[in-house]
Amino acid sequence: MPKLADGMLVSISSGRQELPILTVPDANDSVTIRLKRATSLEPLNWSNRSTTISLTVDASYDGGATWEFFVGATAEGGVHVTRTGVELEETTLSGTLRRGSGRRLRATLEVANGPLATRTTIEAT
Amino acid sequence: MAVAFDAASSGQGTGVTSLTVSHTCSGSDRLLTVGASVSAGSPPTISGVTYNSVAMTAMSGPTLFITFGRYSSWRLIAPATGANNIVASFGGTADEAAVGGISFTGAHQTTPLGTVAEAEGTSTAPSVNAVSAADEIVVDHVYAFNSATAGAFSYAPGAGQTERYDVNVSDNFGGAAGSTETGAASTTMSHTITTAGIVTSWRTSAVGVKPAAAAATDNQEWLTRSADRANQRQSSMVPY
After folding, report:
1. Does B20 touch chain A (CB under 8 A)?
2. Which residues in chain B have their CB less than 8 angstroms from residue A113's CB?
3. Contacts A68 to B, Cβ<8 Å
4. DSSP readout, chain A?
5. What is the rounded CA–CA span in Å between residue A91 and residue A85?
6. pLDDT digits over A47-104, tens only?
7. What pTM was estimated for this model as a whole?
8. Can you name the residues that pair with B162 across neighbouring β-strands?
9. Contacts with B170 from chain A: Cβ below 8 Å
10. pLDDT in tens, B144-201
11. Do B181 and B230 meet the contact criterion of CB atoms below 8 Å apart?
12. For residues A116 and B197, what is the distance between their CA atoms, to the nearest angstrom?
């Protein structure tokens, strides 16, 4: 499972943040973006429920010459307890790319009511 | 015109309040179907699904099932061609969420669907029986989740079905799939779920997609007009 990006915990202000363009290996088609959430152990991460992220991922199939929308999601912050009684550590978003060479990814975070602290990881499988 | 599979798309997330996936529709007499489902301790509502910002019509649900799941499937007649976004919006944060789209060409543009069949259960063998016809394609959308122990989901479609999408939500607590099969008077749409998790709950729906008004209608019109012309010729003859 190659990690295309493994960011540090950083503070992100309100507004639009574009992550660096990533190259997807030819052998991998499924892509997962992970954003660290607030938990009891890490309460300072994205702790405010009213702080929302709109995550958009664009894909290029020609080495970055042209781009098209791939997947997106919105999420709100705060501690979220799942039905199994554990705290959700990450918000994730996944999709499957078309096969081919020269594939690139471009992720954009749109933060409202920030700032927030999170760590972004992008994996391809 | 025969109904035919066009394209499929899918996406999934955890801890999200909406999901968006790109789907490309092409051809004529188009129909788009979408499965959009969530699971959580208190599953959020599924407030709607749009394609290219046009509201889709619910085929099944949104329905709360087995306490922790909320299932829905949707359709849109004549969706815009080209790459556009399917957007599923939820009324709160979902532990797991999955969206899958399957589009068709050659679908009837007034009454494209038969009766929607629905089923739910707790097992690794979701199954539902749809009433359809030989000139139809049956489409299903299934969603399942584990309540107690995580275990990555994968789906194997039943005999005669073609899997169009197969999604394992990345926390390994949920998954979705969609498939198609040539219609028959009674078509069973089933999947076998492989998961290491326990207590797998599922809900599914299936429906026959009807073909666009057949070219035979044109032939019928031509025959009717020919018969009319023949009658006119006969009636204009002067009897001896």
Report:
1. yes
2. none
3. 22, 83
4. --EEEEPPPEEE-SEEEEPPPEEPPTT--EEEEEEE---SSSTTTT--TT-EEEEEEEEESSTTSS-EEEEEEEEE-S--B-TTSPBP-EEEEEEEPPS-SS-EEEEEEEEES--EEE-EEEEE-
5. 16
6. 999 999 999 999 999 999 999 999 999 999 999 999 989 999 999 999 999 999 999 9
7. 0.90
8. B180
9. 32, 34, 92, 94
10. 999 878 889 999 999 999 999 999 998 889 999 999 999 999 999 999 999 988 889 9
11. no
12. 34
**CA B184 – CA A2 distance, rounded (Å):** 45
Strands A22-23 and A116-118 come out as unpaired
CA triple A119-A124-A125, angle to 5 deg: 135
**Residues whose CB is less than 8 angstroms from the CB of residue B239 and which lie 6 or more positions away in sequence, other chains included:** none
Element (H, E) at B220: helix B216-236
Note which residues in 110-149 of chain B have CB less than 8 A from chain A.
Answer: 147-148
For B6-55, how does the pLDDT look when each residue is reduced to its tens digit (9 = 90+)? 999 999 999 999 999 999 999 999 999 999 999 999 999 999 999 999 99
